[in-house]
Amino acid sequence: MNMIRSIIKGTGHYVPENVVTNEDLSKIMTTSDEWITERTGIKERRHRKERNDAQETTSYLGLKASEMALENAGLTAKDLDFIIFATLSPDYFFPGCGVQIQEALGCDTIGALDVRNQCSGFIYALSVANAFIKSGTYKNILVVGAEVHSFGLDFSDEGRGVSVIFGDGAGAVILSKASDHEKGDVLAFNMHSEGKHAEELSTKFPGSKFGWSDRMRLEPEAVTNAEIYPNMNGNFVFKHAVTRFPESMLEALESAGKTLEDLDLFIPHQANLRIAQFVQKKLGLKDDQVFNNIQKYGNTTAASIPLAFSEAVSEGKAKRGDLVLLTAFGSGFTWGSVLLVY
Questions:
Q1: Of the listed 117, 269, 272, 293, which one is catalytic?
Q2: Is 149 a catalytic residue?
Q3: Which end of the chain is more exposed for a tag (fewer CB within 10 A), N or C?
Q4: In this predicted model, what pLDDT tens digit does every residue of 163-187 receive, in sequence order?
């Protein structure tokens, strides 16, 4: 009996039109193009406009990427069996964005699952989708990663270490049951976590641990920017990322009986170009084996890998039959990899 294989049938991405350069940020906080580029490799990012005709929410960005992925796959919304949406910046505190995509696309009353694993969200989501496909439960699953960071960043000197990094964007893939003539497959995946470091990269409000409603009502002046806005222990995160990235990558390759020499393309989570370059050098990967686009979009968290994957496909850098490795590390801490034949 033939084993079920899961294949990425279509890819899509979407970013707001509004480009925010390093020079633009230098006009509203004490920073410079040189300072940002040296530390992150980022030259520009996309931010939605606060008020525009499209009302670019996280679900809207995800919708546009999903429409492109469906067209790329030659499928319609009615062909979808399930939706998995990864984000840390949903339109509402609840419900999640998955149901909004289901409605906006005009799908049948299929299930919609939301994943809250931040930078690793797409890896976790794709791993879950793969399990559903290979169990025979579903045939076509829409997997989306989308973020609108710009509404929740501190654009003051106090918050510049975080705010210069993040951008808005979305990416999506259609993971499907492969037909006999399609050669792709998800070969291996792994997922890890280390919750003791949760507050090294976090946003504390709104959260039940910190008594949001009581403090806002009784002593709103006591709520600080450090609690409302994202905070990151940058050096600590970097140190752990450059350790966990290679561990997860090699674990996935070993699980599938592959080596770094077999790899056609490595697409890392676009957290910081310096992390990607460190990992590339440590593992001896060639430039044409690694795809980065953080220079243009910044860190789009759960959106970064599907956005980069879709761009790599569009640019001909990821081709059918290629062995592709996707790896992420981020808040939680969580990290993981998916190794697949595209």
A1: 269
A2: no
A3: N
A4: 999 999 999 999 999 999 998 999 9
